[in-house]
Design a protein that fits this description.
Shape: globular
Mean pLDDT: 90
Number of domains: 7
CATH class of the largest domain: Mainly Beta
Largest sheet: 8 strands, antiparallel
Strand content: 25-35%
CATH architecture of the largest domain: Distorted Sandwich
Low-confidence stretches: 777-784
Distance between the termini: 34 Å
Number of helices: 21
């Protein structure tokens, strides 16, 4: 038995650390949290100063039993959970459960899993930091209070579904997405005309090249733009002034949790949760420093290693020492930014994590590299027939610096149409006359703010001070799982725009079209998300207020720094919040979540867009009417808030009879599981690209034949009367009755085709009488 027991959160981390520490140390994992709040009565004794009631979950009982046994048999127990509030809390729970004295037990921390870092941690243990523990407890308790008290309010006041929930950070995140959607829906595009002129000039080799100059301003109307072009007819263009300005670009700071999530989303297309999963794997394998951090700080050792790597790979000129500072005052400077543990490793063997590792390596290297040096030329071009000027600008990269390795990406909202990359200009001289090739005034439309991506939502939450590095991934996952937000693409629509062209002193007008409004992997609020947000805004405006939510985060920081008492902070929050809950339960009306669209002409019945049990729908007629109401489900791209009466009525074209195939009608419709075709009493799911409102018989008939053939290939035997089938599956034959599947015993698999109906029934009855034991749920990892 080893003399020392080291307890960490994950088995991967345990394996890596045990190799470093040697035979005197046994490293075991507690698999994340070993205790959580009871589910009954919130798990909090509110009357007794918010005392938490902790229990050991079933799936952790064996882990705890094993750790208790090992702790008794070892000389010394070391707690090596992560150095954040969550990790500190896990160590405290271990002390409580294993009977360790938190004032005496050795607590070790490190930001990277390397031999020097682990050995240094063992040489300099510290005691448990109860301020951090209390900050985590306060967050857990407050979030439990909000969830447990708000969710039943939603169940009582909104009859759409019982899985509704609310949360302190998740509800505010949904509010951001809802407000952006309404801003987009209410946006009216305004058109202006942008003037651009194309000239030709000779480059240093005497070769003619084309370059662009922009007009003095944007014109509000086509008439104003045309007037300007008319003034340019027969004009002489000459260079009035040339300015050459040196410029530079500096690298971004090394990654924090938030910036890593944003950049991995932009550059690699990763979801926030995937980024954190891969980053955790890299950390536990010893490849990067701790992945939950809001610090941009780099250790002196790391800076020295980076300098060596830059000078070796690129030369002395490419190195520039930099010390980055956090804008966020609460950021923990003792922590480090996310960086590779060994800078000489520019990649890793693991294919899953390679792309993310290389992104981290490039960003880290670039942060200590020289600025990129630019030379920007701005030429003012005189128009002889009016007093206006055109401006041509070009940019030349004189020294690439950090751009040799890395260029930061940007979100949609940080870009505009004027951010186009600067082109190059030919050599120009003052008073030089230029040849105009053509001049265009192109109609351009203003655009609303883009919908959030996961990356830009993280950025916004961070800007507002809502949440912390560990909360972004679970928050974004939760709001999608709850059905408040969905990530999807949006197809663009064609829009015409006008172009006025001046060429050879003649002005002409033409109309072209462009695809506009297309978006990829954006966050859209669902109708349910909008309705829940409106309700919470109306009755719980403090919980939904951005400033208030950020203030709560600051108070958690104060608790962690020993400046505030945790249960006193909770009391200040709970009293007004609980009053709001009681007042809402007593006085708030039930939420209908509906919008009146109009009246059906033929029947005079009301047409309403509303939330139903299975999602948004259109209803014609009332429940109390003698004739039952008619219902139609909204398409995925439609919303209660924006659907028009015309589009709503179009939904009632289903079910559609496409005609006969093999002497039976083919009917298309939408069910709970999506669009389908019905033929000869059988149902076939339509392909994704098939729209039930427009699909025709000649498209659906081959689908029926194809799916029927696939089913026939799978069918071994059918007992029609008993509705029992013996089918081929990917893992061998099985029995299907109705919608349920049953395993065939091993000894009868080879003779499945010979089974009688009695034998099949016996297998089914036996399976029902002896259902397979449920697998234990997977052990929960530490919450992100």
């Amino acid at each position: 038995m080893a003399k020392n027991l080291v307890i960490v959160e994950s088995p991967a981390k345990a394996k890596t650390i045990e190799k470093i520490l040697g035979k005197d140390f046994e490293v075991k994992s507690c698999f994340g949290h070993i205790r959580d709040l009871e589910k009954d009565d919130m798990g909090i004794d509110i009357e007794n100063n918010f005392k938490p009631k902790y229990v050991i979950p079933e799936d952790k009982e064996k882990v705890v039993k094993d750790l208790k046994k090992l702790a008794k048999e070892t000389d010394e127990v070391w707690l090596a959970t992560d150095e954040d509030r969550e990790g500190e809390a896990i160590s405290w729970h271990l002390c409580e459960v294993l009977g360790l004295d938190p004032k005496e037990t050795k607590r070790i921390v490190f930001h990277e899993i390397t031999k020097p870092a682990i050995e240094n941690a063992v040489q300099h243990p510290r005691k448990l930091d109860m301020d951090r523990v209390n900050a985590q407890q306060a967050r857990r308790i407050l979030d439990r209070i909000v969830g447990f008290e708000l969710s039943p309010v939603l169940w009582r006041k909104m009859s759409m579904r019982n899985s509704l929930s609310a949360g302190r950070v998740q509800s505010v995140a949904v509010r951001l997405i809802v407000e952006r959607e309404r801003e987009i829906n209410g946006f009216t595009a305004v058109s202006t005309f942008k003037v651009e002129a194309w000239f030709t000039g000779k480059d240093i080799n005497g070769k003619n090249i084309s370059f662009k100059a922009e007009g003095p301003n944007k014109f509000k109307t086509a008439e104003d733009a045309e007037k300007f072009l008319k003034e340019c007819v027969a004009a002489v263009y000459s260079v009035k002034d040339i300015q050459v300005k040196p410029g530079k670009k500096s690298p971004a700071a090394p990654f924090t949790t938030s910036t890593l999530q944003q950049e991995a989303s932009r550059k690699l297309g990763y979801s926030v949760s995937k980024t954190m999963l891969l980053a955790q794997k890299l950390y536990e394998s010893g490849f990067i420093t701790y992945m939950r951090t809001d610090s941009v700080n780099l250790s002196d050792t790391a800076i020295t290693e980076i300098e060596k790597a830059i000078k070796t790979s690129f030369g002395d000129r490419y190195h520039q020492f930099r010390k980055f500072k956090n804008k966020n005052e609460s950021a923990q400077e003792a922590h480090e930014a996310i960086r590779p543990t060994y800078m000489e490793n520019s990649t890793v063997d693991d294919s899953d994590t390679r792309k993310l590792y290389e992104l981290i390596w490039k960003r880290t290297i670039a942060s200590q590299m020289a600025d990129a040096e630019l030379e920007k030329t701005i030429a003012k071009i005189n128009i002889s027939t009016n007093k206006e000027e055109l401006t041509a600008s070009g940019e030349v990269l004189k020294f690439d610096g950090f751009l040799k390795v890395y260029m930061e990406s940007h979100d949609d909202e940080d870009l505009n149409e004027d951010d186009a990359q600067e082109g190059s200009l030919p050599p120009l001289a003052v008073k030089q006359t230029l040849d105009l090739r053509e001049m265009k005034a192109t109609e351009r439309f203003s655009r609303p703010a883009p919908r959030y991506t996961e990356a830009s939502l993280v950025k916004k939450l961070e800007e507002l001070g809502i949440g912390r590095p560990s909360t972004y991934a679970p928050t974004i996952t939760t709001i999608q799982k709850r059905g408040y937000v969905e990530k999807r693409d949006k197809e663009g629509i064609k829009r015409e725009f006008r172009i006025l062209l001046l060429k050879a002193d003649q002005i002409s007008q033409q109309t072209e079209s462009e695809n506009t409004g297309a978006e990829k992997s954006k966050l859209f609020p669902t109708d349910l998300g909008m309705i829940v947000t409106d309700f919470l805004n109306q009755y719980f405006n403090s919980v939904m207020d951005y400033g208030f939510t950020a203030k709560i985060e600051e108070e958690f920081d104060e608790i962690a720094n020993g400046k505030k008492v945790w249960n006193k902070m909770l009391k200040e929050f709970y009293s007004p919040f609980h009053k709001d809950v009681e007042n809402t339960l007593e006085n708030a009306e039930r939420v209908k979540g509906e919008r009146q669209l109009g009246i059906e002409e033929s029947t005079g019945k009301p047409i309403v867009a509303r939330m139903g049990r299975y999602g948004p729908m259109i209803q014609i007629g009332k429940v109390e009417d003698e004739e039952k109401p008619r219902f139609a489900k909204l398409k995925a791209t439609q919303s209660i808030e924006t659907i028009s009466l015309e589009d709503a009525m179009e939904l009632f074209r289903l079910p559609r009879n496409l005609g006969q195939f093999e002497d039976s009608d083919v009917i298309v419709n939408i069910g709970r599981f999506g669009p389908y075709a019905q033929h000869d009493k059988k149902f076939y799911s339509l392909k994704k690209e098939m729209d039930p409102y427009t699909v025709e018989l000649d498209e659906v008939a081959p689908l029926i034949v194809e799916k029927r053939a696939a089913k026939d290939e799978r069918t071994i035997k059918v007992f029609e009367k008993e509705k029992i089938q013996i089918l081929k599956g990917p893992y061998g034959p099985y029995i299907k009755q109705g919608l349920k599947n049953f395993k065939i015993p091993k000894e009868k698999i080879d003779t499945a085709a010979d089974l009688t109906v009695e034998e099949a029934k016996a297998i089914i009855e036996d399976a029902k009488a002896n259902p397979p034991k449920k697998k234990a749920p997977p052990r929960k990892k530490k919450a992100e």
